[in-house]
């Protein structure tokens, strides 16, 4: 039937063509005057499909006609001379056609007035027009993102797409960001999305290896319909990155350069010399005598400047980048050759990040059928400097961290002679080593040699062969080689090599070299069938087969007692080799994938997609899994009844459901493993062997218990979306509701210790995430010389654990290694009915006041019987100590009085961008926020008195401590050392609104440039992290130094983020 | 308005049949390609671990077995077992206090979340898992039956020993006798204490028949027949006391102590101090010591098998080369005063001197051996394990090569006496064995009766038991036994409460604060540790001990 109609249409068309040709001929002979003519023709859209219902009007006359279902119109025109036909239809740009007297057939193509609906969106294994999209895909406005330069695109991604949460661990140059799309599914495994870079899936990318300027587009696939084609790796969402390809045209040379200066956003205020000495006197009057000798009094310190250590370790650091790219091509060959060099110095001395990167992309059309191309990217990177969030070799003590010294190093020694050299002495003369590893932060930062090198090569190639008009075979292959090397050298002036620290004593000068090489190859073969049967039936189908193999190699060694310190890292071979590592592992994956897009009558869209993945990470019986999805969309606007609402330019309802997976487990999690080396159980006894009769016999010990029944984690996601456009899409709104349920959670579950293993992979537990996302794009003003556009997005996500393994009531988690005094504390809890991580601890209940005590005859204080203790012995409690709430009311504060004290999950996150152009000026202003999330500010546990470590400076806030004359203080009396617990006092609101980017550019007028033969020049100034509005008392609320799904938003010795001001230049020749 | 040249403007179909052929051919080729690939998928996905070994392929050769067994022994040396915790900060008694430790893990502050306690439990169960795997898979090894027996005997003993430590400290514990095949295995509830002990006895008895005599090794790091027998005596004695109170086991304890004595393989070293000097010097005295935990080297190098004996619990010294000793473990006047005049053990067990810092800073301070004043009692450190005698060329601050004595012959003799006293009453043999230990303590020949040091001839009843109890304190303090002796005698809590009073009344006030707190934390619940979080938070079938 369909075919019949098709044929009839064709015959009819042919007839018309013949008639019109004939009449045309005839007309040539006829007098060109007033004779009435029937003008006919066909109106089609950009795809050559007939348009029905187009109004055809003779300009200035009431005569109109309408195209029929085949796009054909007939209109009688009385006078052809100077006549003009207007073709108009909602959603299309009105076109006028001048008639001449020679022809009566006018075939017209109308272009869509909502150009963005025709934007091509990159999806898995293909592209689709925005209007035909059935899934939820967020498009990053790359142009906006690039307005202010950054080292890595991830630094600019936050707030750009609804539902994509990007948060930084801290501000360390070269450190990576944490990206979570629509909430975390996994409790113990990675929640990072899959990256697909130019079609190649990369599970653990280093976004720093990509030059942001090479990026053409970024799409974020969010719902199951969009991600199911990535099957087992799609559950955390997919970030599609497409890099620039060669463009047809004469060679274009582009040079982009920017230079910026960075400065820390905020400093932690510490006590002045006067305040410090006053505190020391209260803390320990005897010990404080050193500040009061030679006739000095406390008041002597009032005018003393002392050493402000932060002045010395922070610097205003330059940052610059130069990129050059050459692109061009003809209709057969296109190419891009580009390179870039980035040098970012850290805002802390002796640190920084460098990147050199080069890229070649070639696309060649060999014949009508065959196209080939290659894309090769090579990146070299170096990061250098003390890692603020790592305690290094002495890492179990708080004192081994950078900011412990930077904040805590005292401003004065009390010894006027000592003060002169204090700044140059590697150690505080009064601080005994052993358990306090504080090192002069300047000396330490200067001597720290901790360098990471990355060499990354990505080479991809493809071959695309048109098997038939509608059928294309694409074979692609690629290799990735990511080689990382870390060199650490601890000389005698660093905490790790100093003869004053436990580690330094045991190891002397020491260092290590570790190499980590990740190689992967991938082959993908797809066949695409693209068929437009007619206006009513469009079919696009993709089927494919892929294979991937990943190998991870690592090796390295650690040596101590290095005799020649001056040789540095190259002198390690003279030391005593302590640990040698050599590891090798392999994983393979085979997949079949398919997708069918079917469009009915341009308004009903259907997508079915799925992938079947086989992974070597599971036991033979469980290797294969199937991840299907389906979605429908209804372009309501295409319905006749919508025609009268011509101010509504787009209405699309989308609905999708599907299942995707997560296979982020170790390569052989299904096997039990025996090992002979590499034990780190914190007991010093790191080898599983034993001496018998003074002869060593190495041990082989089972270290991991395999789960032969392990299988894929799967996430079922439902998405309901609405796309609305008004006034030719000058106002476009997208709303999505989603509900994800993750089951068979790949959980590195805690096992009862009686199993002989503390953890093992299990498929148990359920998590749900549901939420709402809104994106609003508006064109507020669109004048020739002034435009203003706005993007606003906001996302709400609710994360909840539905079930844990074996009815386990909760998972409580320590934050180990930041401070050994807090090793017993369990500040995080994950329990069914709550989000994956919540803060657990005591509720701060103010301070004990004198009224809480009976005064004994000897003058000492004894806690009244009806006043509860705070976890300490009652006898130890004195006025000014911290109180905690006795939640269960049993009269004793103990571990049972802990409760939920905070929630690190934001209520909503979002971004707000405004772009303006005025003549040749452009301005972009971008805000980002996070609301309702808490942060655990562990810095305050150390720097607000609670540990009472000697000679340690404190935060300025510690001024408000309990004294007999300051009893309504915030903080306890000097010298309170316990109990060492996490309490509501250090849980702070981490909400923030950040003026993240402001960029102002000026494009030189084209007529000026023409003379100097330059295509375009744009100069700009940009600022990053300009202002942050927050109640958070720490340096920056966007922090998560121990980031894992179970331990988010923990702030301890974080590298502050920088405020960056850049000046840049883009030149195109 | 453009038309594709490959299609007809009339019907949009390909005009050429040729192209269709190609399509079909291409499809066919592709299909074939996929089929071939699919065929190889299975193989492609079948990656094998290249860096690790799995239980299924191991446990075949003698080397495999030796290494697996070595790993079972390994857990004895963890810091949270016999590295320091089980004779130190997890074994508080009236024999020591920890200086200046009012809070923290060294202050007897326990709860289910205490990291060290968790790690101790974990280390013991890791040892059990290693033993379970070896015991289960040893039969498949391609070695002689004799070799299998020897390995299996030791593994059985060690598993039983780890369970003994668990039962002694935590009471009823989950008894797991098969290695873990999968994390999905059902979790195990606490097995009644009597059953745990029954298994310990069964395994040790089986081990007794499999392991070799100590003379076959010439050293005592490996478990030998008499070590098994002696340990069985300790197990029976523990079963006979609190909390199990299976008094019939006194006879078994006596029987097994008897076996050791009858083997004639063991004897008391004439010099009490030499026993410990030998430990420092990595020399093996297989007559005195039935079993030791072996430590070696200074933990500098690829192999790290040093321990904390002598550094964590040793003579205070802030110089590494002399032999660094933390100023943690201090003796109590109770131990010091328990010795009679001329008992040579006192000034070895309690160090009469320390290495006082003359100048410089720790850990390379210039130090001088300085005697304590007679009035300075609580200031003294434990002197049994002395780093001056350490043989390691380059000493480490923390790690020593000093072995830890797990079972000494004097203990066997005293256990015999105690068991026999309970089973039969005061017998001449029992008295003689106690006297042997005493004579050696005074530097006298052990086999020659000596009225100046022997127990009064007519000693009887509770007096004899009191004498044994006191002798155990003098002979065996700082060997990880005191707390457990007090518990099985049912007097741990009362003793520690008395100790609080003693500290309050007679200890220098500068030292007493921490000591009082540590001792005062022993209450009725303290006879058992709390079940650590690492078990109880995950395993719903395990219930907490009373009071925790």
Structure overview:
With 1069 residues, chain A is mainly beta. In chain A, the strands form 13 sheets. Chain A has a 22-stranded antiparallel barrel. A 5-stranded mixed beta sheet of chain A has the order 10-15-16-13-14. In chain A, strands 3-2-5-6 form a 4-stranded antiparallel beta sheet, with no helix packed on it. In chain A, α6 runs antiparallel to α8. The longest helix of chain A has 28 residues, at 2-29. Chain A is elongated. The two termini of chain A are 57 Å apart. The termini of chain B are far apart. Chain B has 19 helices and 6 strands. In chain B, α2 packs parallel to α5. The model of chain B is unreliable at 1-22 (pLDDT under 50). The interface between A and B is large, with 119 and 120 residues.
Summarize the helices and strands and which ones pair or pack.
The complex is a heterodimer of chains A (1069) and B (548).
Chain A: H1 2-29, E1 37-44, E2 55-58, E3 64-66, E4 72-77, E5 84-88, E6 95-98, E7 108-109, E8 120-123, E9 126-129, E10 137-140, H2 142-145, E11 164-168, E12 177-181, E13 194-197, E14 200-202, E15 215-221, H3 224-227, E16 238-243, E17 249-264, H4 273-283, H5 309-313, E18 317-329, E19 333-345, E20 352-365, E21 370-384, H6 402-408, H7 416-422, H8 441-447, E22 449-468, E23 471-490, H9 502-507, E24 510-534, E25 537-560, E26 576-600, E27 604-615, E28 624-635, E29 648-662, E30 673-675, E31 690-692, E32 695-697, E33 701-704, E34 713-726, E35 731-743, E36 746-750, E37 759-763, E38 766-782, E39 786-803, E40 811-813, E41 828-830, E42 838-841, E43 844-847, E44 853-855, E45 861-863, E46 882-884, E47 899-902, E48 908-918, E49 921-931, E50 934-937, H10 939-943, E51 987-989, E52 992-1003, H11 1006-1011, E53 1016-1030, E54 1050-1051, E55 1058-1068
Parallel strand pairs in A: 1-7, 13-16, 50-54
Antiparallel strand pairs in A: 1-4, 2-3, 2-5, 5-6, 8-9, 10-15, 11-12, 13-14, 15-16, 17-18, 17-55, 18-19, 19-20, 20-21, 21-22, 22-23, 23-24, 24-25, 25-26, 26-27, 27-28, 28-29, 29-34, 30-33, 31-32, 34-35, 35-38, 36-37, 38-39, 39-48, 40-41, 41-42, 42-47, 43-46, 44-45, 48-49, 49-52, 50-51, 52-53, 53-55
Chain B: H1 17-45, H2 62-74, H3 79-83, E1 96-98, H4 115-137, H5 145-170, H6 193-208, H7 225-240, H8 249-262, H9 272-280, E2 289-293, H10 320-323, E3 329-331, H11 333-338, H12 346-349, E4 353-359, E5 366-371, E6 404-408, H13 409-424, H14 428-441, H15 461-476, H16 482-488, H17 492-506, H18 509-520, H19 533-536
Antiparallel strand pairs in B: 1-3, 2-6, 4-5
Helix pairs in contact in B: 2-4, 2-5, 4-5, 5-6, 5-7, 6-7, 7-8, 7-13, 8-13, 13-14, 13-15, 14-15, 17-18
């Amino acid at each position: 039937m369909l075919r019949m109609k098709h044929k009839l249409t064709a015959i009819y068309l042919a007839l018309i063509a013949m008639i019109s040709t004939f009449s045309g001929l005839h007309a040539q002979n006829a007098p060109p005057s007033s004779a009435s003519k029937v003008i006919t023709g066909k109106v089609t859209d950009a795809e050559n499909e007939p348009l029905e219902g187009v109004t055809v009007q003779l300009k200035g006359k009431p005569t109109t006609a309408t195209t029929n279902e085949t796009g054909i119109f007939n209109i009688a025109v009385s006078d052809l001379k100077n006549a003009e036909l207007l073709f108009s239809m909602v959603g299309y740009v009105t076109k006028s056609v001048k008639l001449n007297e020679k022809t009566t057939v006018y075939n017209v193509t109308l272009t869509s007035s909502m150009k963005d609906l025709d934007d091509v969106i990159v999806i898995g294994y293909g592209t689709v027009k925005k209007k035909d999209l059935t899934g939820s895909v967020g498009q990053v406005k790359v142009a906006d993102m690039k307005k202010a330069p950054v080292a890595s695109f991830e630094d600019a991604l936050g707030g750009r797409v609804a539902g994509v949460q990007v948060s930084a661990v801290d501000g360390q140059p070269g450190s990576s960001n944490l990206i979570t799309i629509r909430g975390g599914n996994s409790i113990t495994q990675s929640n990072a999305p899959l990256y697909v870079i130019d079609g190649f899936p990369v599970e653990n990318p280093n976004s720093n290896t990509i030059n942001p300027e090479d990026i053409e587009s970024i799409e974020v696939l969010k719902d199951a319909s969009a991600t199911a084609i990535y099957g087992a790796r799609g559950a955390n969402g997919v970030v599609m990155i497409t890099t620039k390809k060669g463009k047809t045209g004469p060679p274009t040379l582009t040079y982009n350069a920017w230079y910026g200066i960075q400065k820390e956003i905020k400093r932690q205020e510490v006590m002045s010399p006067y305040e410090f000495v006053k505190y020391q006197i209260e803390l320990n009057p005897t010990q404080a005598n050193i500040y009061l000798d030679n006739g000095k009094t406390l008041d002597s310190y009032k005018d003393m400047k002392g050493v402000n250590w932060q002045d010395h370790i922070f610097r205003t650091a330059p940052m610059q980048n130069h990129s050059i790219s050459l692109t061009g091509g003809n209709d057969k060959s296109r190419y891009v050759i580009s390179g870039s060099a980035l040098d970012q110095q850290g805002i802390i001395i002796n640190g920084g990040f460098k990147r050199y990167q080069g890229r070649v992309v070639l696309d060649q059309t060999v014949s009508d059928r065959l196209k080939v191309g290659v894309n090769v990217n090579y990146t070299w990177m170096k990061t250098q400097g003390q890692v603020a969030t790592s305690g290094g070799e002495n890492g179990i003590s708080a004192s081994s961290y950078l900011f412990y010294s930077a904040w805590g190093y005292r401003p004065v020694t009390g010894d006027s002679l000592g003060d002169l050299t204090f700044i140059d002495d590697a150690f505080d003369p009064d601080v005994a080593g052993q358990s306090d590893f504080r090192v002069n932060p300047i000396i330490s930062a200067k001597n720290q040699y901790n360098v990471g090198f990355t060499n990354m090569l990505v080479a991809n190639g493809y071959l695309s062969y048109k098997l038939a008009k509608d059928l294309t075979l694409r074979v692609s292959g690629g290799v990735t080689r990511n080689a990382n090397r870390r060199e650490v050298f601890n000389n005698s002036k660093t905490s790790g090599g100093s003869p004053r620290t436990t580690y330094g004593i045991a190891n002397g000068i020491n260092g290590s070299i570790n190499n980590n090489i990740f190689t992967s190859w991938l082959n993908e073969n797809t066949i695409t069938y693209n068929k437009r049967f007619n206006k009513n039936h469009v079919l696009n189908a993709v089927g494919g087969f892929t294979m991937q193999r990943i190998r991870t190699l690592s090796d390295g060694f650690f040596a101590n007692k290095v005799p020649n310190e001056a040789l540095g890292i190259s002198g390690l071979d003279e030391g005593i080799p302590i640990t040698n590592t050599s590891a090798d592992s392999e994983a393979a994956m085979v997949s079949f994938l398919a997708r069918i897009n079917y469009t009915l009558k341009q308004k009903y869209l259907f997508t079915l997609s799925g992938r079947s993945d086989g992974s070597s990470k599971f036991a033979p019986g469980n290797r294969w899994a199937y991840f299907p999805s389906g979605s429908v969309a209804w372009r309501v606007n295409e319905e006749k009844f919508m025609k009268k609402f011509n101010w509504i330019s787009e209405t699309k309802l989308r609905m999708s459901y599907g299942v995707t997976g997560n296979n982020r487990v170790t390569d052989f999690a299904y096997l039990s493993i025996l090992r002979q080396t590499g034990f780190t159980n914190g007991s010093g006894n790191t080898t599983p062997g034993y001496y018998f009769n003074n002869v060593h016999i190495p041990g082989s010990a089972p270290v991991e218990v395999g789960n032969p029944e392990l299988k894929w984690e799967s996430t079922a996601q439902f998405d309901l979306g609405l796309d609305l456009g008004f006034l030719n899409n000058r106002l476009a709104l997208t709303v999505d509701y989603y509900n994800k349920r993750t089951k068979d959670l790949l959980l590195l579950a805690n096992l009862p210790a009686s199993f002989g293993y503390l953890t093992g992979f299990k498929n148990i537990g359920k998590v749900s995430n549901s939420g709402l996302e809104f994106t609003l794009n508006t064109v507020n003003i669109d004048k020739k010389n002034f435009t203003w556009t706005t993007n606003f997005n906001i996302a709400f996500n609710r994360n909840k654990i539905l079930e844990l393994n074996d009815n386990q009531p909760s998972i409580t988690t320590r934050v180990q290694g930041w401070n050994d005094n807090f090793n017993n504390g369990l500040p995080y809890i994950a329990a069914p009915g709550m989000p994956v991580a919540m803060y657990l601890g005591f509720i701060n209940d103010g301070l004990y006041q004198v009224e809480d005590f009976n005064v004994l005859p000897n003058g000492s204080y004894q806690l009244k019987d009806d006043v509860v203790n705070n976890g300490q012995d009652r006898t130890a409690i004195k006025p000014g100590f911290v109180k905690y709430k006795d939640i269960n009311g049993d009269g004793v504060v103990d571990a049972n009085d802990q409760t939920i004290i905070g929630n690190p999950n934001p209520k909503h996150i979002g971004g707000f961008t405004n772009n303006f152009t005025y003549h040749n000026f452009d301005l972009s202003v971008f805000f980002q926020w996070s609301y309702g999330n808490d942060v655990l500010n562990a810095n305050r546990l150390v720097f607000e008195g609670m540990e009472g470590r000697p000679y340690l400076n404190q935060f300025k806030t510690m001024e408000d401590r309990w004294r007999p004359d300051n009893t309504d203080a915030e903080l306890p009396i000097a010298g309170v050392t316990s109990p060492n617990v996490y309490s509501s006092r250090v849980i702070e609101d981490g909400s923030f609104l950040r003026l993240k980017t402001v960029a102002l550019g000026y494009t030189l007028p084209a007529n000026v440039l023409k003379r100097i033969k330059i295509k375009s020049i744009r100069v700009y100034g940009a600022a990053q992290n300009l202002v942050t509005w927050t109640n958070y008392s720490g340096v920056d609320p966007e922090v998560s130094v121990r980031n894992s799904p179970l331990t988010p938003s923990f702030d301890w010795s974080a590298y502050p983020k920088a405020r960056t001001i850049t000046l840049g230049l883009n030149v195109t020749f | 308005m453009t038309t594709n040249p490959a299609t007809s403007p009339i019907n949009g179909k390909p005009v050429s049949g040729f192209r269709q052929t190609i399509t079909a051919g291409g499809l066919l080729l592709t299909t074939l390609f996929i089929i071939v690939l699919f065929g190889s998928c299975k193989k492609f996905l079948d990656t094998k671990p290249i860096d690790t070994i799995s239980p299924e392929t191991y446990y075949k050769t003698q080397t495999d077995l030796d290494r697996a067994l070595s790993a079972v022994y390994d857990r004895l040396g963890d810091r949270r077992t016999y590295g320091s915790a089980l004779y130190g900060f997890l074994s508080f008694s009236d024999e020591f206090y920890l200086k200046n430790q009012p809070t923290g893990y060294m202050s007897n502050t326990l709860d289910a979340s205490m990291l060290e306690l968790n790690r101790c439990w974990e280390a013991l169960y890791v040892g059990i898992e290693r033993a379970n795997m070896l015991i289960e898979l040893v039969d498949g090894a391609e070695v002689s039956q004799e070799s299998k027996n020897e390995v299996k005997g030791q593994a059985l003993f060690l598993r039983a020993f780890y369970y003994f430590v668990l039962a002694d400290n935590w009471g009823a514990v989950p008894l797991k006798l098969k290695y873990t095949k999968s994390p999905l295995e059902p979790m195990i509830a606490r097995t009644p204490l009597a059953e745990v002990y029954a298994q310990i006895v069964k395994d040790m008895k089986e081990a007794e028949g499999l392991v070799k005599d100590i003379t076959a090794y010439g050293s005592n790091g490996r478990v030998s027949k008499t070590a098994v027998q002696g340990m069985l005596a300790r197990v029976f004695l523990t079963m006979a006391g609190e909390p199990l109170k299976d008094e019939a086991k006194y006879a078994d304890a006596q029987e097994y102590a008897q076996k050791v004595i009858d083997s004639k393989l063991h004897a008391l070293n004439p010099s009490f101090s030499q026993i410990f000097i030998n430990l420092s010097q990595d020399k093996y005295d297989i007559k005195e010591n039935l079993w030791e935990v072996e430590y070696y080297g200074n933990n500098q190098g690829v192999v790290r098998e040093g321990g904390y004996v002598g550094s964590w619990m040793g003579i205070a010294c802030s110089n590494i080369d002399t032999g660094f000793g933390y100023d943690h473990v201090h003796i109590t006047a109770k131990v010091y005063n328990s010795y009679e005049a001329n008992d040579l053990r006192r000034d070895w067990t309690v160090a009469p001197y320390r290495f006082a810092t003359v100048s410089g800073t720790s850990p390379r301070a210039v130090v001088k051996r300085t005697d304590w004043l007679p009035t300075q009692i609580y200031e003294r450190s434990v002197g049994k394990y002395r780093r001056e005698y350490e043989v390691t060329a380059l000493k480490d601050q923390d790690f020593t090569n000093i072995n830890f004595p797990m079972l000494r012959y004097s203990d066997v003799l005293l256990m015999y006496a105690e068991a026999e006293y309970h089973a039969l009453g005061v017998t001449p043999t029992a008295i003689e064995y106690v006297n042997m230990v005493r004579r050696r303590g005074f530097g006298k020949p052990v086999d020659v009766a000596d009225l100046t040091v022997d127990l009064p001839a007519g000693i009887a009843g509770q007096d004899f038991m009191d004498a044994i109890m006191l002798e155990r304190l003098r002979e065996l303090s700082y060997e990880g036994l005191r707390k457990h002796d007090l518990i099985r005698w049912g007097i741990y809590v009362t003793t520690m409460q008395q100790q609080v009073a003693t500290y309050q009344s007679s200890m220098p006030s500068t030292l007493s604060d921490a000591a009082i707190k540590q001792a005062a934390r022993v209450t009725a619940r303290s006879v058992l540790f709390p079940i650590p979080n690492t078990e109880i938070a995950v395993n719903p079938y395990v219930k907490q001990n009373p009071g925790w």
